[in-house]
Each structure stands twice: as structure tokens, then as C-alpha cells.
Design brief:
The complex is a heterotrimer. By secondary structure, chain A is an alpha/beta fold. Chain A has 13 helices and twelve strands. Chain A is globular and about 70 Å long. In chain C, helix 4 packs across helix 5, helix 5 packs across helix 7 and helix 7 runs parallel beside helix 8. In chain C, 32% of the residues lie in helices and 24% in strands. Chain C starts with 5 loop residues before the first strand and ends in a 10-residue tail after the last strand. Classes of the chains: A alpha/beta, B mainly alpha, C alpha/beta. Chains A and C meet through helix 8, helix 9, helix 10, helix 11 and helix 12 of A and helix 7, helix 8, helix 9, helix 10 and helix 11 of C.
């Protein structure tokens, strides 16, 4: 690929707690090309949210690095330069808590503009108006409202407007529509895709909704207990899933038509509970639930293998050259 | 652009009006709180216009008239006279001036530093900043407020200003602690994280993001505290460490009258009732405010 | 096979809320039925009134500010809304049971799972002779109930507190509680919305099997079309306080007739990857001043003049499927 806009190299984040170390993110690698939408999928404890938080600067990596345009950015936002804070932005999952309930929408949108000294006074008001119009919220109606008097979908649109206020190039979307109804979700997804084309944005899109991912992402990465188990182009991912966890996940999705039903891998193979990230099973962390478990799976952690161009998987069913010849 | 700015400001003003009307609706559902508010308004008016309403305004200053001394309540003297002939009713009206003034000044002096320290300590929880601020707060809180106020006033000359400073010094730690616990939980909210990620300054985060979410508990507490401040002022005056005679502080009046109970009951009972009524009014309003700020789910 | 005897019948239910700004007319003539042994879904988006409907059935609406302004809710012919307290109490204990979205709210945090489950089993289970069960029998029944929900290591779970368990396990406890009663009607309000998708899949399949075994009827409330398709035989689509379409589940989802349902189905992202639709323009109505006539008409692509005049009744649109839309006026129901 041409120079990747974002790259994670051995990105690791551990949290020491009283009950043991939470291995939230464990040595993951991925690359994103400009204009890409990388979908990051996983269930609770997968580490997808922590990964997003490291990219955006809520946490600094424990080890490993994140590179933006080739420059290392593995640090908290406080230590990052202003430019970076302008370029990389985030939209959070819960619009109810990502907008300050005691401030008006105008004040909320003015903050990034003021912090980055992008506009003030009348020009600021004009820019805020333009931002609102871009997310299809009429300024006259919304400028002076408080978040609690508008619906969830509209709140999320304000959050998107806020993220775009600084003219960023990279936006992290952490489950942006999970808390919303499906008809509102459709509107917002359309908005996001339109804005991406218009502004040349790159998206790191986190969600647990695989059907949504199918229609939004250009590449999909799936995480389980802090490790990346499979990553591929969207079409490959859904047509030829390789990892047993991927297959388990895909078979569990509730779909709405027979046609989709036939696209799912064998039905009814999901089993077992997700272990706590403090007590990760030895060897491959998925072995306790895996229907295709081999003897080696509870002893040795599998390495990553590129099975097809752009399609990487971590599983003993697909041993690397080294392992195969051992 | 001019038209739309005007339209926007109009919309903002309308929205604010609507919010106030909603607030009043919630407040007025408590009949007692409304009564408290009415009583307080009356007291404030009376205090402001005391020189015009009081039948004997001169009695609030140095005045003696032994012929009129120690008279029971009558048509000329609604609440009777004290032992040197001053009309108690008039003195109570002027006494309210001191009580309200002290309440406002003490809270004004004490709340602001308390809030600021609480914000800083709460936001920097887990660092040495928090430790220093909160331990100092704890030290002040460990001493019972009345004792501390007494000690401070006793060290200084007893007069109005020193009394106010003493009580303010006693008061700030309560706000520090209140705001500390609010701020330390608010700093984990996503809108605060967002401000940090954007690169907003500390001052912005403390005063524009966190503080507005603390107003409600602070205001409720301030209202309830007014009553308590007045009570402490009265106590200080009662023991002679506050406003000095001949100034008509309610507590001083209660003290002077107490010596001659039960015979000249009017010189103690009426000032005492005056204290009770103003404190009660504040408490009722505070209760009503709590309901106004409570979040509803419908 | 579902019996044609209806277990639960809601007829023309009207519920309003009095708030500061005025009177919210939330439910306007909700009519639905659940027959013996049937699984029925009630689907709608946020604010459509489905939770209000369920709360009305259980009679746990906060009565001021809420008010039932019309209609009846019949359980085996008896109107729940007009029952006396004692009869209502018996009904809730012996006939109805519910599972809610957030198990942390349904489970008492200061009692162990075992103690809560035992209470329920003790109250509702009797021996064939009608006597109450012994302690050992109660314990065995509790363990069995937990096992049936797919709970790993039920004996240990019995002595755990709710916060020690994961979301999925807590919900399994709630299901075990709900199905340990003699209840014939299970009301499930978004029971798996907060759970991971693999756990949701397991739990729903277990629920499916258990309900089948017991022969209970289910009214499942959800906003997930996929969940309702797997679990129910018949669904009602709700919008802004009334039912807009109803019919056999798979048939309705494959061929929705009401414009709202069509908009909804178009918005659901598909595994086939055909892209995401534009959603439905507009917002849900303001219940203080709702649109006249059909409440959906301001957002409807097929809007006609008569739509703003009067609320359309249900019209037949296919085998057992009905939609409240003037587009289908030719065949009255």
C-alpha cells in the first residue's frame, strides 16, 4: 500500500489492577490507507475500545507504537502537539454523555474552534452555522438548544459536527450508532459516508454490529481478548471467514431475511462464556470455546499468517511456515 | 446575517424563559417552599425598608428612655420594649439587616474559594495537588464550626467585619468537599475527555465544563446554609463576640432578654422567633430547590 | 399449534401523560392479542410506546403523571385495568412473568442469586399432591432451572451476588426465575439488547426451547428485527402510540406493506452488503401536538390528502397480514 496514514506496531496496553493485570490490548498490528474505513469488531473484553482510545490519545501504549503519517504518536493527548489534536478526532458511543448537558450546542461547537484559534466572533458563528448545516440540522433551531432537548440521533450529529470542526483527516468512530434506532442509524451512516467522500476522511469504525460493518467498512479486523484474530478486506472477510471465532460471531448475527441466513456459516455453534480479561486462558485465548480445538491450542499462542493477499489470521489451523516445519 | 443573529438571540431568550417557567412549576408544587419564598421576600423587603417601616427607627441606634422601659407588648410597641426603653419590633426589623448582610457576605467570601479549591482538587484527584488541598480541608472540617468561629473571633476584636471573616473561614471547607466529590466523578465524563482531547486549557475544563454541572448542588447548599450562617452569627452575638451593642443584632437581643426570663418574656421570645422564621424560610426554599434540580424521567 | 383462545387481549388502549408542558397523548388505540402457546413480537423504535404498553399490562405505570384514558386489557376475559388489588396480586404471581432489559435492576443486589431463586421456586412450585416442596427439592429445582438456561457451574452461581456475574449470566438468572413460576404469559422487554451477540444467540435459543417445553406464551418487545424474526410467529409493528401493521413474522418482514415498516426494513443493514438506505426522513412526532390523522403521514413518501384527516383503520394486505394505511383501502379488514 502507499504510505499508510495510520499504523499500529505491536500496540499493547495493560492495566494493572488489584485483581491482576488486565491485558486489554496485546501486541496488535494493522495498517490503514488514506480514505479507508477499517472496521474493528469484537465483543466485551476484546480491546477494541481501548485500541481506539490509544489512537486518539486517551491512553498511551504500554509498549509498541502507533504511527500517523510515519510519525510516532504513542502518547496521551496532553503530550501530543496541537496539530495532532486537530487531525485525529473521535465520536463517542453515548451521545448523552459526550455532550455537556449544561452547555448550548453553540458553545459546544465553539470550543474546538476557539481552542485551535480557528475563528472568533461573527466568523465563528458563521462556521458553527455551516457545521450544523453540513449535518443537516438547521442552525436557527439548534444553536441555542441544550442537549437534553434534542433526540439521540440529533445529539450524535452534533457530536459528528464537533469532530469535524477542526477539519481533521482521521476520525475514530466508537460505536457511533449503537445506542440509536435503526432508522436514525441509517441516516447517520449515510451522513458519515457522504462526509468521508466530501472531506477525504479516513475512519476507524468500531462496532459490534457485523451487518453494519458489511456495508460500511472497506477492511475488517476482529479482536478477541486483546488480540487481533483475523483481518481482511470486507468481501473476503464475509465470504471466506477463516478464524473459528469469526465463524462463531457470524453465525450468531440475527438477520432479517432468508437470503442473509444462507450467507451465514453453520448455525448454532456459539458456546461458552467470554473469559474475563484478567484471567486469559493460556495458549490461544479462544481455545476454551473453540469447536475446532487442537491439542496445541491450550499450550502455544498462534502466530499471525497471511493466508491470502491482505487476509491475515492467527490460528493453529493455519500454521505459519515456521510452525509447520517444527 | 443581522436578521439571523437577532432571530437566534430571540430563540435563546425564549428558551431561557421556558426553562425558568419549568423551574418555577417544579418549585411551586411544594406549597411549603412557596410559603418559605414569600416569607423570605417579605423579610428582605422589611430589611431594606426598615428605616421607613419601623415605628421607631431611632431606637436602632443609641437610645435610652427609662420611662418606656420593660413594657409588655401593646398597641404602641407591638413587641414591647427592652430594659432601656427601645422598641423591640423596630430593632428586629433592623436586626434582619445584619442577619441577611452577614449571610450574603459570608457565603460570598467563603463559597468562592471553597468551590475553586474543590474543582482543582477533584480534577487532579490522585496527585499531590489533591492531597494538599483536601488534607487542609479536612483539618478545617475536623474542628466544629461554632468552636472555630468562636476561637477566631475571640482572637480578634469583636466587630461585624471580623465576625464575618471568621464565619467565612469556617465555611469554605464544606464547599471544597462538596465540589471535590462532584468534580472527581465529573472528570470521567466523556464531554470532559472530549475537551481534553481537543486541547482545551485547564481553566476551560474546570470552569466551563465541570463547574456548570455543579451549580445545582452548590445553590441548594447555599440556600440551606444561609439559615445556618444566621444561626452562627446569632450565637456569636449571644455570647458577646459579635456585633456589639447598641447595634441591634438578633442574637444580642436574645442574650439581653434572656437574663430577665420569664418575667419580661417579650424581650427574648420575639427576637428568637425572628431568627427561627428566617432560618425556616431558607430551609423551605432549599428543599424546594432540591426538587427543581432533581432530574425527572418521563 | 396456537389455540385460538386468546390469553391476553389489549383492546383500544389509550394512555396519556400529564407533564409541565401539557398533556402527552402517548397510546392511541393499541389493539393486540396473544393466544395460548403463541409467541408474539411487539416491534418499534424509541418512543413509540411499547414499554408503556407493557407497563400497562403489568399495571406498573406511574399513575400520576400517567393516566389510562380508555380501553381494556383482558387476561382470559378479565379486565386487568379494573381488577382489585388482591386479584391483581394473584395474577402477577401466578399468571404473568417478565424479563426486562437490565438484569441489574431486576435482581436485588444484596441477596444471593440462590436466595432469590429459592424464594420464587418455593412460592410457585408444589408437589403433584399440592404440598409445598422440601428444602432439598427446592434446591434441586433451582439448580435445574439454572442448568436449563445454559448457565455454567450452577451450584457455584447460587451463592454468588448479582454483581459478581457477567451480564449474560445475570440475564440467565432472570430467565430461570421467570420460567420457574407457573406463569402462562411471559413478557420480555428487550431481554438481550445489552448482551454480546454470541451470548445473545445462546440465550435466545435456550429461551426458545424452554418456552416451547413449557407451552408458555410470549410477548416479546424489541427494536431488533433479527431477534424478532428468530423468536416469534406473529408480530405487531408500533409507531407513535398505535399499531400500524401486523402479521405472521417472516411473511411481514419479507414483504412489509405499511410505509413505516418498509422504511424500517430498508434501514436495516444487510449481510448481503447491498448498502445502507437513507433512513426515514423526519422525526418521531411530538406527543404534545401530534399530527392529525395518521401520525406517520408527515414522514410518509406515499402521503395522500385523506391521511391527515382521520386515523386509518386496519386493512387486509395479505394472508393474515393487516396494515393501517389508506393505500390499502380497497379491502377493509
Amino acid at each position: 500500500m502507499t504510505e499508510p496514514i495510520l499504523e499500529a506496531r505491536g500496540l499493547t496496553k495493560f492495566f494493572p489492577t488489584k485483581r491482576g493485570t488486565v491485558r486489554a490490548v496485546d501486541a496488535i498490528d494493522f495498517q490503514m490507507a488514506p480514505g479507508d474505513t477499517l472496521g474493528l469488531v469484537g465483543e466485551s473484553g476484546s480491546g477494541k475500545t481501548t485500541t481506539a482510545q490509544c489512537v486518539v490519545g486517551i491512553y498511551a501504549p504500554t509498549t509498541g507504537d502507533i504511527l500517523f503519517h510515519g510519525q510516532s504518536i504513542g502518547a496521551t493527548a496532553a503530550k501530543r502537539g496541537k496539530d495532532l489534536k486537530r487531525e485525529i478526532r473521535i465520536v463517542f458511543q453515548d451521545p448523552g454523555s459526550s455532550l455537556n448537558p449544561k452547555r448550548t450546542i453553540k458553545q459546544i461547537l465553539a470550543t474546538p474552534l476557539a481552542v485551535h484559534r480557528m475563528a472568533s466572533g461573527r466568523e465563528q458563528l458563521a462556521r458553527i452555522g455551516a457545521l450544523l448545516e453540513r449535518v443537516e440540522l438547521p442552525p436557527a433551531e439548534y444553536l441555542y438548544k441544550h442537549p437534553q432537548s434534542i433526540g439521540g440521533g440529533e445529539k450524535q450529529m452534533v457530536a459528528i459536527a464537533r469532530a469535524l470542526a477542526t477539519d481533521p483527516s482521521f476520525v475514530v468512530l466508537d460505536e457511533p450508532t449503537s445506542a440509536l434506532d435503526v432508522s436514525v442509524q441509517a441516516k447517520i451512516i449515510n451522513l458519515l459516508l457522504g462526509l468521508q467522500k466530501e472531506m477525504g476522511l479516513t475512519y476507524l469504525f468500531i462496532t459490534h454490529d457485523m451487518s453494519l460493518m458489511r456495508n460500511v467498512a472497506s477492511r475488517v479486523a476482529i479482536m478477541y481478548l486483546g488480540k487481533l484474530s483475523e483481518i481482511a478486506n470486507t468481501a473476503d472477510f464475509f465470504q471466506t471467514p477463516l478464524h473459528p471465532y469469526t465463524k462463531m460471531l457470524l453465525s450468531s448475527i440475527p438477520v432479517v431475511s432468508d437470503e442473509e441466513e444462507s450467507l451465514k456459516p453453520a448455525k448454532g455453534i456459539s458456546r461458552g462464556e467470554i473469559p474475563s480479561p484478567v484471567n486469559i486462558p493460556p495458549g490461544c485465548s479462544f481455545h476454551s470455546r473453540c469447536p475446532s480445538r487442537l491439542d496445541v491450542c491450550d499450550k502455544i499462542d498462534p502466530g499471525t499468517v497471511e493466508v491470502a493477499p491482505g487476509h491475515v489470521v492467527r490460528c493453529h489451523l493455519y500454521p505459519s511456515q515456521r510452525e509447520a516445519s517444527a | 446575517m443581522q436578521d439571523s443573529t437577532k432571530a437566534n438571540l430571540l430563540a435563546a431568550w425564549r428558551q431561557r424563559k421556558r426553562n425558568l417557567a419549568h423551574g418555577w412549576y417544579k418549585f411551586s408544587r411544594n406549597p411549603l417552599s412557596v410559603i418559605g419564598l414569600v416569607v423570605l421576600v417579605l423579610i428582605v423587603l422589611v430589611a431594606i425598608f426598615a428605616p421607613y417601616i419601623a415605628p421607631y427607627p431611632g431606637h436602632a441606634k443609641a437610645y435610652t428612655n427609662f420611662r418606656e422601659a420593660s413594657q409588655a407588648p401593646s398597641a404602641q410597641h407591638f413587641f414591647g420594649t427592652d430594659r432601656i426603653g427601645r422598641d423591640i419590633f423596630s430593632r428586629i426589623l433592623f436586626g434582619y439587616r445584619f442577619s441577611l448582610l452577614i449571610g450574603v457576605v459570608v457565603l460570598g467570601l467563603g463559597v468562592a474559594p471553597g468551590v475553586i479549591l474543590g474543582l482543582i482538587a477533584g480534577y487532579r484527584r490522585g496527585t499531590w495537588v489533591e492531597v494538599v488541598i483536601m488534607r487542609v480541608t479536612d483539618v478545617f472540617l475536623a474542628v466544629p464550626p461554632l468552636v472555630l468561629a468562636l476561637a477566631i473571633t475571640a482572637m480578634l476584636t469583636p466587630n461585624l467585619i471580623n465576625q464575618m471573616m471568621a464565619i467565612a473561614l469556617v465555611w469554605w471547607p464544606w464547599y471544597s468537599r462538596l465540589v471535590f466529590s462532584l468534580a472527581s466523578s465529573l472528570r470521567n465524563e466523556y464531554f470532559v475527555k472530549e475537551a481534553e482531547l481537543t486541547g482545551a486549557s485547564q481553566a476551560h475544563i474546570l470552569f466551563r465544563e465541570i463547574l456548570p454541572n455543579c451549580f445545582a448542588p452548590i445553590m441548594t447548599k447555599m440556600t440551606l446554609d444561609m439559615g445556618l450562617v444566621i444561626l452562627i452569627e446569632s450565637t456569636l452575638s449571644f455570647v458577646g463576640l459579635g456585633v456589639q451593642p447598641p447595634k441591634p443584632a438578633l442574637g444580642t437581643m436574645v442574650a439581653e432578654g434572656a437574663k430577665r426570663l420569664p418575667a419580661e418574656w417579650w424581650s427574648t421570645i420575639f427576637p428568637a422567633l425572628a431568627i427561627v422564621i428566617v432560618i425556616l424560610a431558607f430551609n423551605l426554599i432549599g428543599d424546594g430547590l432540591r426538587d427543581v434540580f432533581a432530574v425527572e424521567d418521563v | 399449534m396456537p389455540n385460538s383462545l386468546s390469553l391476553l387481549e389489549i383492546r383500544d388502549l389509550h394512555v396519556g401523560f400529564r407533564i409541565f408542558e401539557g398533556h402527552l397523548r402517548v397510546l392511541t388505540g393499541v389493539t393486540l392479542a396473544v393466544h395460548e402457546g403463541e409467541r408474539v413480537g411487539l416491534v418499534g423504535e424509541t418512543g413509540c410506546g411499547k414499554t408503556t404498553t407493557v407497563k400497562s399490562v403489568l399495571r406498573v405505570l406511574p399513575i400520576p403523571p400517567a393516566r389510562v384514558t380508555g380501553g381494556e386489557i383482558l387476561y382470559r376475559g378479565r379486565d386487568i385495568l379494573r381488577m382489585h388489588r388482591h386479584a391483581l396480586h394473584v395474577l402477577r404471581r401466578e399468571e404473568l412473568t417478565a424479563i426486562f432489559q437490565d438484569p441489574l435492576q431486576s435482581l436485588n443486589p444484596v441477596f444471593t442469586v440462590g436466595s432469590q431463586l429459592r424464594d420464587i421456586v418455593r412460592d410457585s412450585m408444589r408437589t403433584p399432591e399440592g404440598k409445598s416442596l422440601s428444602r432439598r427439592e427446592i434446591e434441586a429445582r433451582c439448580i435445574q432451572a439454572l442448568e436449563e438456561t445454559g448457565m455454567p457451574d450452577p451450584e457455584r452461581i447460587m451463592s454468588n451476588y448479582p454483581i459478581q456475574l457477567s451480564g449474560g449470566m445475570r440475564q440467565r438468572v432472570c430467565i430461570a426465575e421467570a420460567l420457574s413460576t407457573t406463569a402462562r404469559l411471559l413478557l420480555a422487554d428487550e431481554p438481550t439488547t445489552n448482551l454480546d451477540v454470541t451470548i445473545q444467540d445462546q440465550i435466545l435459543r435456550k429461551l426458545d426451547r424452554l418456552v416451547d417445553q413449557k407451552g408458555s406464551s410470549v410477548l416479546m418487545i424489541t427494536h431488533s428485527m433479527g431477534v424478532v424474526r428468530d423468536l416469534t410467529q406473529r408480530i405487531y409493528i408500533m409507531y407513535a402510540g398505535s399499531i400500524v401493521e401486523t402479521g405472521p413474522t417472516r411473511q411481514l418482514l419479507a414483504s412489509p406493506k405499511h410505509p413505516y415498516t418498509q422504511g424500517l426494513m430498508a434501514s436495516v443493514p444487510r449481510l448481503t452488503g447491498r448498502g445502507v438506505s437513507e433512513g426515514i426522513p423526519g422525526r418521531i412526532p411530538n406527543y404534545l401536538a401530534p399530527p392529525s390523522g395518521c401520525r406517520f403521514h408527515p414522514r410518509c413518501p406515499h402521503r395522500m390528502p385523506e391521511c391527515s384527516v382521520e386515523v386509518p383503520p386496519m386493512f387486509d394486505v395479505g394472508a393474515d397480514q393487516r396494515a393501517a394505511c389508506y393505500l390499502y383501502r380497497r379491502s377493509p379488514s
